[in-house]
Amino acid sequence: MPATKSQEAGWTTAAAARLVGYSTQQVRDLERLGVLPAAERTPNGYRRYQERHILALRAYRALATAIGPVPARQMMPTLVQGTLDAAAEKIDDLHALLARSRDHIREASRGLQAVLTDTTHVFDDHDSMTISELAEALGVRASALRHWEHEGLVNPDRVSRSQTRRYNARAITEARIVAALRSGGHRIPPIARVLDQLRQHGLTAEAQALLDERLTVLSRRSVVLLGASGDLHALLNERAQTAAAG
């Protein structure tokens, strides 16, 4: 669609805000934070926003819905100012992160079911993991596993005189559940309550509901991010055209 004369001249802060459903102060704040490129100023000092600013606002709004305002604000400077390769890599990494998170939830659920349905299995050293191996598998620090142990969430075995930690299948499953729920924002007390119920009564409705809720949230975020791809593509495409023209 050809640009109108008013669009060619740019948008005022208020007009840009109306286009994306923000307040004028939100638009100014997003520019200050680097979410938007710096706006041009008229001789009397008023901001004038161009098409690239509107695209950035729409991309930010879609991204904030998908991953949250803070991560979106952290990503946007790369998307609007970094190289196109860096911007594309950020988006690819985000899709991969959500996919890995969903995999972790599924692994936690599968491990939980396996442990609960086979309580007589004797685990040998081949079934267990060291603290560094488990931390790497979960994508957390070893210090996080030590903290979870201190809170009673995960109970590794201690072997040899050095008291080295070894995590058997049950402890690995508990650690996967904790990691999955902590990444979803759940606090330690409710996670501890769920694990206590699992140890006493097996799979409970609350435990399954928490895991299912986390998986649903991640799936919803993936769908929203897919919807945001149109705005992100438009933003990067405009940048590529501007770079080619320059």
Structure write-up:
- It is a single chain.
- The chain is mainly α and 246 residues long.
- The protein has a two-stranded antiparallel sheet with strand order 1-2.
- The two termini are 23 Å apart.
- The protein contains 11 helices and 4 strands; from the N terminus they run αααββαααααββααα.
- It comes from Microbacterium wangchenii.
- Residues 10-58, 128-197 form the HTH merR-type domain.
Write the layout of secondary structure elements.
Elements lengths: L4 H5 L3 H8 L3 H9 L7 E2 L5 E2 L2 H17 L1 H13 L2 H34 L13 H8 L3 H9 L6 E3 L4 E3 L2 H15 L4 H14 L3 H41 L1
Antiparallel strand pairs: 1-2, 3-4
Protein name: MerR family transcriptional regulator
InterPro entries: DNA-bd_dom_put_sf, MerR-type_HTH_dom, MerR_fam
Pfam family, one: MerR
Level-2 CATH architecture of the largest domain: Orthogonal Bundle
Using only C-alpha atoms, the radius of gyration works out to 24 Å
Q: Spans with pLDDT under 50 lasting ≥5 residues?
A: 1-6, 119-123
Give the helices and strands as they follow along the chain: HHHEEHHHHHEEHHH
Count the domains. 2
Estimated structural class: mainly alpha
Report strand order across the widest sheet. Answer: 1-2
- Measured by DSSP, the beta-strand proportion falls in under 5%
Q: Residue-averaged pLDDT, rounded?
A: 81
Helix run count: 11
Please provide the count of β strands.
4
Pfam family, one: MerR_1
Keywords: DNA-binding, Repressor, Transcription, Transcription regulation
InterPro entries: DNA-bd_dom_put_sf, MerR-type_HTH_dom, MerR_fam
Protein name: MerR family transcriptional regulator
